[in-house]
Amino acid sequence: MVATTERDEMTWYECEECGLLFENETDAEQHESGCDAEDPSYLQ
Ligand SMILES: [Zn+2]
């Protein structure tokens, strides 16, 4: 799910899967829905 973080008096939306930051929540959600890091089960 998308996390919010405040920086420079702005709210940023962070992909919890890979850590990318977005200026708006819609972009973050769209990214995260197709994020390659969404299923980390193969990493271990
Ligand atoms: Zn991501």
From TrEMBL:
Annotated protein name in UniProt: DNA-binding protein
Alphabetical UniProt keywords: DNA-binding
Location of the C2H2-type domain: 13-40
GO MF terms, alphabetically ordered: DNA binding
Pfam family, one: DUF7128
UniProt keyword annotation of NAD present: no
